[in-house]
Amino acid sequence: xxxxxxxxxxxxxxxxxxxxxxxxxxxxxxxxxxxxxxxxxxxxxxxxxxxxxxxxxxxxxxxxxxxxxxxxxxxxxxxxxxxxxxxxxxxxxxxxxxxxxxxxxxxxxxxxxxxxxxxxxxxxxxxxxxxxxxxxxxxxxxxxxxxxxxxxxxxxxxxxxxxxxxxxxxxxxxxxxxxxxxxxxxxxxxxxxxxxxxxxxxxxxxxxxxxxxxxxxxxxxxxxxxxxxxxxxxxxxxxxxxxxxxxxxxxxxxxxxxxxx
Length: 261
Known about the structure:
The chain is of the alpha+beta class and about 260 residues long. It folds into two domains: about 1-155, no CATH class; about 160-260, Diaminopimelate Epimerase, Chain A, domain 1 (Roll). About 50% of the residues lie in helices and about 15% in strands. It has eleven helices and nine strands. A hairpin with a 2-residue loop joins strand 4 and strand 5. The termini are far apart.
């Protein structure tokens, strides 16, 4: 994963897209060159020579894998940590291993191991290692995803309206494009901590309301059967309204009604 995301970040932040990716150990001349980007191999961390390995770093150093060292040099570390939930976890897993990372996050090692090693990720990693054509396609595809997410992040801020509805902080995303919502709403919610998000329903005529971080004040399953409800998830975390012509004060009061008793 470190190899894959290092290549994707490199392409996303300006390495020419016709630059080839070779998966091997570098020669001394390549390590000394400022024209060859060396990531995750070589035993050297020297941004001036475009060398970004982490295996020579002391175990007491802050865990930083190759893609994080590269992102720091590019000035993108904070942005990627905010936008990409995988960024911090994959960094720790690559440097510290699954068991130590699970302990850091307070998670069972079995649960984290199943997320790290599974048929999909195992296939991607094997093909990246063995298939130069897919290696390039995958790196370019992921780099374009990163670039599009970053552009959506820069455009979404002025479109979000922070509202208070039925006493709850609500982030109104109805002025945003569906691409902006799908790519950036989770990151925005992690930073601003509203009780829920309000969005246009991408598959219907009404609104979608999404509970954030399992906020205990909100349970949309309480809205099941109400005239305005198209769908209320039994888990309580999402509600879809039939139309946008709905009293949101009523909706969010209903979603809190059991908590107020």
